[in-house]
């Protein structure tokens, strides 16, 4: 039931994407910054950063229209697109893009806020939307499951940095909670993960924290032994988790 609700929300988000694209655009924020304006997309990205302090990357798994498009396309290419090299590219792209935005803001101080700045549903808007949708489609169909999330997404780094700051400040946030003793290594969780993570191995190790996890809970719902829980909690050190597992085995 939970996954049907999640997929329904994603489907609605995808249908609304032509209207909400303006608030998620990596291009409009640059245009706005070049005139000293903090526009709607800048406010949304900032909100996602703060939101991730407590709720991690739930947005990616439950609300992101770009993710919904990729999930739909994954039926044509179920290849896993997940590795350190493939994942790091989005941070490089993000660093260059965000640095440009900061430079433009600094150049045009003082800044002013305008949530709907440049919002016009015209031919130019439709052209940009079409280009971005084409990139998402072609990249997803050629790479595999959520390939753009792994390699190109300009929003994911905001949330990953938010998660990192949250853990550094010892702020409890939403995360998976493994139960290694209950895991029977059936591999269903790994097969179900839309991000291509090796969930089974992560559960067995007692450490399910991953910057690529989008908190979709597909692994939780597919596990026949309920070996994966979830909730709000602080980050536990991997060594502590391993020590706990070894102590249980000794007993």
UniProtKB/TrEMBL annotation:
Q: Which InterPro entries match?
A: 4Fe4S_Fe-S-bd, 4Fe4S_Fe_S_CS, Electron_Trans/Redox
Where do the TM regions start and end? 9-30, 36-55, 88-106, 126-144
The record's SUPFAM superfamilies line, in alphabetical order, gives: 4Fe-4S ferredoxins (SSF54862)
Q: The 4Fe-4S ferredoxin-type domain covers which part of the protein?
A: 174-205, 209-233
Sorted keywords for this record are: 4Fe-4S, Electron transport, Iron, Iron-sulfur, Membrane, Metal-binding, Transmembrane, Transmembrane helix, Transport
List, alphabetically, the Pfam families matched: Fer4_10 (PF13237), Fer4_5 (PF12801)
**Which named protein is this?**
4Fe-4S binding protein
Source organism per entry reads Lacrimispora xylanolytica
């Amino acid at each position: 039931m939970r996954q049907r609700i999640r997929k329904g929300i994603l489907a609605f988000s995808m249908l609304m994407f032509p209207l909400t694209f303006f608030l998620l655009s990596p291009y409009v924020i640059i245009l706005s910054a070049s005139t000293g304006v903090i526009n709607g997309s800048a406010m949304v990205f900032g909100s996602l950063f703060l939101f991730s302090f407590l709720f991690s990357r739930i947005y990616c798994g439950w609300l992101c229209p770009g993710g919904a498009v990729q999930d739909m396309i994954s039926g044509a290419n179920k290849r896993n697109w997940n590795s350190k090299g493939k994942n790091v590219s989005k941070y490089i792209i993000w660093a260059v893009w965000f640095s440009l935005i900061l430079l433009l803001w600094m150049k045009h101080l003082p800044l002013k806020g305008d949530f709907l700045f440049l919002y016009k549903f015209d031919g130019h808007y439709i052209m940009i939307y079409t280009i971005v949708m084409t990139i998402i489609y072609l990249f997803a169909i050629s790479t595999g499951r959520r390939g753009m999330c792994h390699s190109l997404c300009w929003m994911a780094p905001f949330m990953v940095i938010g998660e990192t700051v949250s853990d550094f400040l010892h702020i409890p946030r939403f995360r998976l909670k493994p139960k290694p003793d209950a895991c029977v290594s059936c591999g269903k969780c790994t097969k179900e993960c839309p991000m291509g993570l090796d969930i089974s191995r992560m559960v067995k190790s007692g450490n399910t924290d991953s910057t690529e996890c989008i908190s979709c809970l597909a692994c939780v719902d597919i596990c026949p032994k309920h070996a994966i829980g979830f909730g709000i909690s602080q980050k536990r050190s991997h060594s502590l988790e391993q020590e706990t597992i070894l102590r249980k085995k000794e007993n």
